[in-house]
Amino acid sequence: MVAMPYYVSPEQLMKDRADYARKGIARGRSVIAVAYDAGVLFVAENPSSSLRKVSEIYDRIAFAAVGKYNEFEQLRVAGIRVADVRGYQYAREDVTGRSLANAYATALGTAFTEGSKPYEVELLVAEVGDSDVDLFHILYDGSITDEEGFVAIGGDAERVNARLSELHQPGSQLATALGWARTALSDGDELAGRLEVAVLDRGRGRRKFRRLSDEAVTEALESGT
Description:
The protein contains six helices and ten strands; from the N terminus they run H-E-E-E-E-H-H-E-E-E-E-H-H-E-E-H. By secondary structure, the protein is α+β, with helices and mostly antiparallel strands. Helix 4 packs antiparallel against helix 5 and helix 5 (174-186) packs across helix 6.
């Protein structure tokens, strides 16, 4: 008797892959990106002092991620390499957040449809310009969305985004935006981990990215209350 091959419909296979990726991402804690008067603020609840969810990619471009750490760390390093090669071959101005976001979307989409398993990650790519901000939200299946003003990914992102929509006002100062982010993440509860905070500040020199120390975060939160 010849054994019949096991068949799964394409629709069911894609659904199973999506469910698998979403469950992995939901186990992480949310990351928030908020536009403020001088650029973009990133806030993540992160119990680790050595493993980063938010990082610099290039001069005015930053990357944030949630999900499986070793997977999004591989993607972060790959993004830096892509940016460095493009900047070296052409010009630094040719490295854009949109081009990097599209590269990430292609990689995630290919892994989702053709790989042995999808990436359990969700990404943000942000770029700050002279007067504007670009926020690109990339899902595990390669879907990419332009976000306006703010976005939360991972964890209980739906609740966090809903809270941010009530709080966010364009053109606010850093301390105010940081207060919103903490409020949206906690929603009245005590945060379980420390806050990892970084910014893309258009007022800095060529490299716009900087991290805020725990002391600077505490000072900013106190000044914003």
